[in-house]
Amino acid sequence: MRAIHRLPVALVLSGTLSGCLMVPPEEDPIYLKQLEIDNRLVRVERIIDNQGLLNLMSQLDALQKENQALRNEIETLRNALEQGGERQRQLYLDLDQRLQDMERRATAIARANADKPVLEGGSLSPGELPVPGGGDRANYTAAFELLKQGRYDQASLAFRQFLSAYSDSKLADNAQYWLAESYYVTQKYKDGLREFEVVIEKYPQSRKIPDALLKIGYCNYELKRYEAARKALSSVVQDYKETTAARLAGQRLQLMASEGR
Fold first, then answer.
1. Consecutive sets of 10 residues in the chain, 261 residues long: mean pLDDT of each?
2. Which residues does 71 contact at the CB level (< 8 Å), separation at least 6?
3. N or C: which end of the chain has fewer CB within 10 A?
4. Distance (Å, rounded) from C-alpha 117 to C-alpha 145?
5. Is the whole model's pTM more than 0.70, yes or no?
């Protein structure tokens, strides 16, 4: 009995399996369900891919806009810098031109003032500067020019007034020396001696000291003060060796020795 009952079941299963094997794929419900799931997965993947692409496109667009904004700012700054640089250049050129004009006018005025007393050959009065509107250098130059022209009395007045007006000038020691020289060359040895001694006393650091000592020796020699002359000349030889003043002092000492003085 059991064998008889099992036989139909086996036959049914066998038929069912045979039937399943005979159904085509497009009609197989399992296949169709699997196909539907695959299609849904593809759509989901596309949606995901499209969304990622949209995000990337959105980010790229934002970056492009930001880049353009930065470019605009850079261009604005460049234009501002170029305009500012051009303005500064124009201001500099204008200032430089104005300074050059002022320097040319000042130089022309200084030359005109410095040349006036010498070229015109006018005379000075006591207390009058050779270049009333000029500075210390213009007046020193004018006084020295008078000395070179042999106008010794006028040079003496010019140097004396220079020293009164510009006692603190860096040219004061030179002016004092040439004042003394203006007396020496006119054989006013006492006046010259006094003024050369002022150089020694008032300007001990002056480069004119060796020459002043030499002329002190010369003045004393002419005044027949031979001992004082020998002392001054010997000081030049000992203290200022290898100078022209020392050589001249030595020559005068030799002359004095030959003269028995």
1. 44 45 60 69 65 65 74 73 69 67 60 47 72 91 94 94 95 97 96 97 96 97 97 96 94 94 89
2. none
3. N
4. 10
5. no
